[in-house]
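idk why but the lab printer keeps eating my pages so im just putting this in chat instead. protein + adenosine-5'-triphosphate:
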Amino acid sequence: MNMRTDREVVLKLSALTKRFGGLTAVRELDLEVREGEICALVGPNGSGKTTVLNLITGIYPVDGGEIRFLNRPIQGLAPHAICWQGIARTFQNIRVLSQQTVFENVLLGKGYGNGGAGILRTLFGTRGHCREEQQNAREIDEVLEFVGLSNLRGELAGNLPYGKQRILEIARALVTGPKLLLLDEPAAGLNSQEILSLMDLVTRINARGIGVLLIEHRMELVGRLSNWVYVLDHGVKIAEGRFESIKEDPMVIEAYLGRRRV
Amino acid sequence: MLQLVLNGLANGVLYALPALGISLIWNASGQFNFAQSDLLTLGGYIMFTLFGTLKIPYVPAFLLTVAVMGGVGYFLSWVYFYPMLEARVNPQIIMIGTVALSVFIRNFILVVWSSTPQRYRNVFGSRALQFGELFVMPHVLWIIGIVAALLILLQYFLRGTMMGTAMRSVAQRPAAAWLMGIRNNRMISITFMMSTAIAAVAGILIAPINTLSPSMGSTMGAKVMAAVLIGGLGSFSGALVGGILVGVSEILFSAFISSAYRDVFVFGLLVLFLIFRPGGIFKADISEKI
Amino acid sequence: MLKISDLYVGYTSVPVLNGISLEVPEGKIVTMLGANGAGKSTTLKAISGLMPAGFGSIRFGGAELAGRRPDEIVRMGIAHVPEGRLVFPGLTVSENIRIGSYLCKYSKAELKRNMEHQFALFPRLAERRGQLAGTMSGGEQQMLSIARALMSKPKLLMLDEPSLGLAPVIIDQIIDKITEINREGTTVLLIEQNAELALAISDWAYILSVGSVALSGPSSEIGRDRSILDAYLGG
Amino acid sequence: MKGMKNFFREYTVFIVCALLMVVPSITSQYVFYVFERGVQNAFLVIGLVILIGYSGMMTLGSAAHLAIGGYAYGIYCLLGLPPVLSAAIAVATATLLGTLLAFPAFKLSGPFLVVTTVGFGEITRILILNLQSLTGGAYGLSGYPVVSQAMQKYLYYGMVALLLLVILAVRRLGRSRIGLALKAVRQDQVAAEVMGVHIKRAKVAAYALSSLLAGLSGVFLANLTGYLSPDSFTGSESATYLLMTVMGGMSNPTGAAVSSVGITALPEVLRFLYSSRLMVYSLALLIYIRVKWGRKRRVALVKPSAQGAPKPKGGES
Amino acid sequence: AVAEAKPASYKIVHLAPLTGDASFQGQILVNAAQMAVDEINAAGGINGVPIEYVPIDETSSTNSGIEAVRKAISENPDAIIGPNRSGTILAAHQLWQEAGIPAITDGTNAATTKQNNPYTFRIQIPSTFWIPILAKTAKEYYNASKIAVIYGNNEYSQGLWDATTPALEEYGLETVAVLNYNDGDRDFTSQLLEVRKSGADALFLYGYEAELGLIVRQRTELGMGDLPVFGERGCASPAVQAIAGDENFNGMVCSTTLSQGDPAESIQAFIKKYGETFDTALSPTHVNHYDSIKILADVIGRVGNDHDAIRDALAVLDFEGALGHYQADSEGNLVHTIHTQVFKDGAWQLLLTEEYPVE
Ligand SMILES: Nc1ncnc2c1ncn2[C@@H]1O[C@H](COP(=O)(O)OP(=O)(O)OP(=O)(O)O)[C@@H](O)[C@H]1O
Ligand SMILES: Nc1ncnc2c1ncn2[C@@H]1O[C@H](COP(=O)(O)OP(=O)(O)OP(=O)(O)O)[C@@H](O)[C@H]1O
Ligand SMILES: [Mg+2]
Ligand SMILES: [Mg+2]
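predcted complex ->
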């Protein structure tokens, strides 16, 4: 392990394991994300990267090992509870509410059940409820501005081009007020120019003190953004380190990068 | 006791038969058709007219009924299901439409044939076969055979043939199926023709055993659906096992505990199944990939 | 082979394609580049009939495609690998691949040989023949979607961002495969976000910007001036 | 044009309620009764808007919730509670029992959920049928105090006023975070959960609200008919409520109210058809559904030459 | 009622289930009434005034039945015939009481005439009388001593069951098995085997047509064809016979209003005419409203069309109808002659005729 910040560990996976029937998608994985860091998780297709995110966010039950977030175990919690702890994510297969507007999609990130938005208050339209709604709207507009979607506020999310939907997912995740953001292939479907502005966005998000765990196949992005890279293959960690050293690793080249690129 | 189980079996195969049709549509179009039980009744009535009233011999009348009902299926897919699917209507709305369709078919029957209960001859014989102390109606054995044969045929058709695979692909991703060169509308028509034909077979067989009345299918309907879900929606073996399970257990329940609360038991059973084994007995154990 | 002239297509009343004209000569690889939402996917959908063409004509080997159903168009020898994979989630990997040859009346042996071809190209899929496609990882689904299209031996192969979500090593293979089948005589129309990659293997390139062709030319020329390219790709 | 449409959407509810208010003074007893039933049904159907329209949780057991409300009212009254108190507890009972259905709904969706609700409806009906000492069984329940014939008119005014409030509240709900959570139940539960939406709580809320409204509707029904019988709460009644929800536009409470009144009246309007009445009625609904949703959405393109359209490069076409 | 100007017509509204599960009964009810109306109008009406006859669909459910009653009242008729469903009567009788319109209802549930509503009449015999006559037939014609009872879980059948125990006791018959079923059941093997085990020599069977037919049929299928089955008037419906099949119907004993086996000339003439006029089979149970019309015509002809006058006249009715002799009892039941008949060798045979004892 060469030169990694010794800041506090935000997310820590130890010996994490997940099986689907006879297939072990993630095997005994140890992984850390530290405060303020951008970590990358790469690996061949089907190596278990998305599965790791699904385990962290509580979508799949964990078959073995432990997940700690801010020093508290979080496995076994429901996804919404994990979100309330401060973990937000985007999806590899975009999951926006396509029949809802951009604004409403971001509002979803405000959640339901963690304070505010009481049924009775809503039904009777109390003053407090209205104030809360205005507060939410302001916050959402601010985030839309931040990611650059302000002009699409009232558009139906389903009508946005692919790339914009990815940004929308990021905006939605930001509104939950996360301490850690998990991005699953945010650059898929973006061209080189758009990747530049995405990099800029991720950097700005990181600058707000939000840690990022990034899954990506576009190496230019990984190389420019990440402080630390983990490489998975067949659910097993085959390497970790800084990108510069990872990209020279023969095992990684063989399994993932291919020879032509190097 | 054994006699009761036998009665339950006789009862259960009658659920299993329409259950097959529901599973077929689910597999091959991703739809849930509430009118299926009324289509069954319609099949029974057409047979009644052909065989009972016009005195056409059984086999030709049977085939003719199945053909006519296939035509009905084609018509329905052409005027309703295909346009709705093509317009990518929310499946819920399509399903609610089938509820209206079900009311329509029932009342159509009422207007055409009146609500007088009807019957035609049970060609499988009307004396119970006696084995020692046990009585079995011959039609029970026949229907078990027919259900088994249909089950194998459908299973082979859907899993083993290109056409069956194409049908399922249309149900899952119509746009992509189109890009494979599959004619969606024709596939959907064939699906519905097959399912109404199966409903017709069920109706023809059930009518002389039960009573042919406009609500024949719908009184069975809820329990057929429970049987389908208990067995596993989309699984043909599940339709058979679910049907028999519901049939046997309800007879045992009403014999030993209470006949008044029998349906409470059946639906309670369903809820238990759905809680502890959502997806039913024969369910491929897949979780959605996120 | 394919000639689109002055095509207008739209979702509601707002046109997405604003009079696009482009040509795909037989035996060549033509690529379409453009910013997010420029209308690239819409063009492919219009060709394969998934989106009805508003005005204008799409001619394929002399026949007019506008107004035809997708299955008719596909029958004429066009294969379309759509955006977003669209594998059949409830079918197994093998079934997904097999359905790709729906139109080709292969004999049993031919079918088997063809399928093994695909499995050789994507060993990952071979490992998972019996798995339901819906539970495959994103990249695996992308491979499946491509393999499925390759089953049909099309005259024109249209690929919508084939590299999406694939590991670099797989992208290399796919690029090789595309050039290979092109050499064997299949014409290719390629949409790709990775401009360098696309320009490297294609003969001719169109750059789309807000629903119309902004620039076109031989790929080698287009690739030469990055700054122009970047200006259009910025959206 | 758009402003006009928005204006209309915002304010039709007032127009509708105002029209409903004048009904008793201009129609005969019989027509008035039909309207009363329509308004009474509207409460239930608005509940279904929350359940089905917003959250996509289909139900074919709504008549059971209605029955629970009605029977609970009758039974409490007959046990000696004062009517107003009985009504309140009856609504609470219906809410409580209806909310039970949320628990299977945590895991189930689509046909699984629908058939479960069919089962719930059947179970309720059979219990009513068999718990004779409480419910009167097949003989039905009557003899509890009801709003007198003379006061019916005021009951009706009260119902319409309450309906207005309910519509406004449900509409507000639909636009709020809770409404959004419910819409997410329909569109993408996983995404919503991961974004911090407590899906289970949202489902409980949807069932609670909808069964509350159904219970309320049941109490009104008990008062309008003065007699409750299990055959009024069958699956086909539930199907009718479902159709009312669809016709009202699924997630539009005002539309739901209008369609409730309309569809309640439709069989009465169709009386002249005698025995083919229900056939025509269901066919009409089916055709409506088919035409409203099943039309091919042909793309209506602005002609390139038309004014305002972006100028094509190649000139006119 | 002498100087009054005659109205253009006398309006009689008939509530009958024309849609839903009971619609075939409704059709027979309306047919029978229509036949009487046509006869009267052809003969010049009531004192020269024709009857305006308006059938209204009561449907087969209580809720819409209430709406139908309101509709009927809004027609402002001189008298109402129906409703046919006890539930609808119980739910809606106050409506015609408030409107002051007399109604000749047809519910099987005796509670309908016990609601203190002077405008409710009922062209029915209380079930407390149907059952004793069955018991009497069982005893006298079949020498039965051990009775098994199967009844459905519905209001109608339960009403009959309630009247069964006292009736059986009266005739010294022993109840050896009591079984029930739910509407919609299709397999009755277990109940029937239970009956066989009990050694009963007669089966009393109460329910709706569909289930009755199946039970009668499954009895023969299980080889119990010799066990006589006793049913209340519903059993004589052609629907039951059709479901059971003629061959399984032998030994079916029914109590009825009208016996097809009755050799009386007027009855045979009526049956013949009905058969010629309509293509739906005659059900002896449902043709009563032929006489309801005749009764109303008689009453209106005597007292005019004042509602209360009609009511008062009905309350003391004593009328010789085509199908029987009708008398009003103290509760407003228009009771009449009843019979028991047995189906034997493909035809009905009259067993017993009994006049209802009006106190
Ligand atoms: N629900 C599931 N059921 C069965 N197998 C699954 C399921 N989810 C994932 N898998 C399998 O687990 C493996 C890991 O999948 P995962 O989605 O984590 O891969 P990935 O690393 O994200 O790949 P990609 O880069 O292609 O997105 C894959 O082989 C996949 O087929
Ligand atoms: N269903 C829809 N309704 C309305 N507009 C739509 C719809 N789908 C797409 N659009 C719009 O059509 C335009 C073109 O979309 P298209 O998918 O063709 O772009 P693309 O060039 O393929 O972009 P990408 O790089 O994101 O794939 C976009 O601006 C998009 O917002
Ligand atoms: Mg992935
Ligand atoms: Mg695209």
